[in-house]
Amino acid sequence: MRRFFGKVRVRAAVGASLVVAVALVAAGTALLLVLKNNLVGQADLQAENAAREVATQIATGKPYGKLDLPDGDDLPVVVLAEDGRVLAAGDDVRAVDGAAVTERHPPTARQPDGGDSDDDDDDRETKPGEVDDEARHSGGTATVGHRTADYRFATVEAKDTQGDKAVVRAGAPLAAEREAVGSVRTAMLIGLPCLLLVVAGVTWLVTRRALRPVEGIRREMAAITASTDLSRRVPEPGSRDEIDRLARTTNETLGALQESVERQRRFVADASHELRSPIASLRTQLEVGIAHPELLDAEGAVEDAVRLQNLAADLLLLARLDAGERPADTRIDLAALVREEVSQRVGDRIAVQVEDVAEGAGVEVAGSRSQVGRVLGNLLDNAQRHAAGAVRAGVVRDGRWAVLRVEDDGPGVPPEERERIFERFVRLDDARSRDDGGAGLGLAIARDVAERHGGTLTVRDGSVFELRLPTA
Predict the structure, then answer these.
(1) Most buried among 9, 93, 320, 403, using CB within 10 Å?
(2) Is 0.85 surpassed by the pTM of this model?
(3) Rounded to the nearest 5 degrees, what angle is found at the Cα of 406, between the Cα atoms of 401 and 412?
(4) Contact indicator for 127, 59 with CB cutoff of 8 Å
(5) What are phi and psi of 167, to 5 degrees?
(6) In a domain, 57, yes or no
């Protein structure tokens, strides 16, 4: 069991760590992408602003040789003619995208009107002295001085006052973006394992604390098993969670088991006590008969044997009921069963009056005919034992229930004893002697059989016993 709990803690810690790791990797990746896109967007904006500033100077007619260009280290700028000639470049700018920037060529004279169609199309797009509204962004490299680095370039077209097109390319360095992304990536690579260790440790401790009551329940159950002391109970944490409900359910199970064992012990003790009397009486009579045949009470010996036989049959039936024997699923006509049982009691002390017995299949029930007949016989025996002069039996239908009533005109059962009489080996104080009153198993057997058939057996109005069974 301890290995099991250990495995639970390990699985919980590993599972939580994996979930957190996946979540952190996904969040970190998204964070890096967002950060990178934001920094690249800032570089694009910075490069575009620099390109437009230079393009504006060209559009206002400022000579190329006198353009105010940004510092080459931070924002490399190159101004190209439409045919690719370098018109101007920032200080120390040596190359852009591998193309050398070493010569400065003055612009050629403006072509007269009626030139080639491309110039005419460009004239229609951008007029002299204007800057194109659109800017193109791209990545590339630039060599400033003796250092080559990656940049984000913005390309903006403009026309000077003479109508000559100039292409301005300005770059913004990506060193800050790469440094920021690299710093975040390094921090994540260092922090992720540490965070996972913290999550695993916390999960281990929390799971261990959560399972501590379960370990207490396990230890107590092991002790109960070893000592066979069913009066002990497992500790209830009182946390009102699943473990607390488990502890309460375990204690309820132990209580039911203890009650069942104690009931079984009482049953064995009472059965032994009840069996001892007829066996001892029968043995005494037989021993006397052997020694003095003229003193043998044959009728008494037969009565003891019959009583012993009936008691053994009752004990056997109770044992089968306790073992969970399911009743047969056959149809029983209660009215016919009552008439049959009464017809066999011709020599009883008090005759049974049959009343309110319905006809037909309206009072049919499903179950074991022998067991239901045993209930009826026990109820009639009990009524005849306590009746003053009348015993009545009847069967009626009450909705989906078939109701069998047995009534006598005896003193009745006191209200405080109406449940106790259904316990095994119980006889009321005013009951007859053991020889006349039986072993106190008849009503207990009757109620057990009724419950096994999905019904109830109760006593009301003092001396009216009512058996209710679901109709078939």
Answers:
(1) 93
(2) no
(3) 125
(4) no
(5) -110, 120
(6) yes
